[in-house]
Design brief:
Shape: globular
Number of helices: 9
CATH superfamily of the largest domain: P-loop containing nucleotide triphosphate hydrolases
Radius of gyration: 17 Å
Largest sheet: 6 strands, mixed
Number of domains: 2
CATH topology of the largest domain: Rossmann fold
Length: 239
């Protein structure tokens, strides 16, 4: 059974269909990419999965359970976490406290403050930020703020992680480190659904790629199949 499944997922903004009749699946343990031109509906689809928006039509299921219309905190506690296209950290709060919040409020059970702090510190080590645990989050570079947001999402103990442009704005060495981080997350048994424009990354780390254009799915397949798809080359990859 897919860990995530959408059937006929549609969302309108006024008369514009930002997502139109999209079918998709993500299998347990996969890394699935979501690509397409700006305005294709990628982040809207993530907002629908995570509960920030409700679909106008269609069904979204997580582990077989319908999540349409559920609030984001409920979906998070079911096991779906996400990061954001524009980094959303608590800038005045220390790095450690940013992650501790995820452990305290994003998990389905009760967690003590001491346990949450221990888990947060372990996750900061995992993402390479343990030395900066006291620093205000605003003092981190963009690449490190993105890692912090990943750590906070992981603190909710997700089974499915939605990554929205983790590598946007990073230099080549930071992109390579981010690719290693994605591989490390997968090794923890977490399924990944990721939006990305860095084609080197998406083609290297994904098992399968879904392509949107003007809100509709125009292609789906392995990285090799997508790279050689005439439709995808015409609307997105270019010559």
């Amino acid at each position: 059974m897919p860990i995530l499944e959408g059937r006929g997922v549609t969302r309108y903004f006024g008369g514009l269909a930002a997502v139109s009749g999209v079918d998709f699946t993500v299998e347990p343990g996969e890394v699935v990419g979501l690509i397409g031109p700006n305005g294709a509906g990628k982040t809207t689809l993530f907002n629908l999965v995570s509960g920030a928006l409700a679909p106008n039509a269609g069904t979204i299921r997580f582990k077989g359970q319908k999540v349409n219309g559920l609030k984001p905190d409920r979906i998070c506690k079911m096991g779906v976490a996400r990061t954001f296209q524009s980094v959303k950290v608590f800038g005045n709060m220390p790095v450690l406290h940013n992650v501790t919040l995820g452990a305290l409020f994003g998990t389905p059970g009760s967690v003590s403050a001491a346990e949450a702090a221990r888990e947060a510190m372990e996750l900061l080590r995992f993402v390479g930020l343990s030395a900066a645990w006291r620093a205000p989050a605003r003092d981190l570079t963009l690449a490190r703020q993105k890692r912090l947001e990943v750590a906070r999402a992981l603190a909710t103990r997700p089974q499915l992680l939605l990554l929205d442009e983790l590598m946007a704005g990073l230099n080549p060495s930071e992109i390579a480190e981010a690719m290693e981080l994605v591989a490390g997350i997968r090794e923890r048994g977490i399924t990944i659904f990721m939006i990305e424009h860095v084609m080197k990354a998406i083609m290297s780390v994904c098992d399968r790629i879904i392509v949107l254009d003007h809100g509709k799915k125009i292609a789906e397949g392995t990285p090799r199949e997508i790279a050689t798809s005439k439709a995808v080359v015409e609307v997105y990859l270019g010559e």
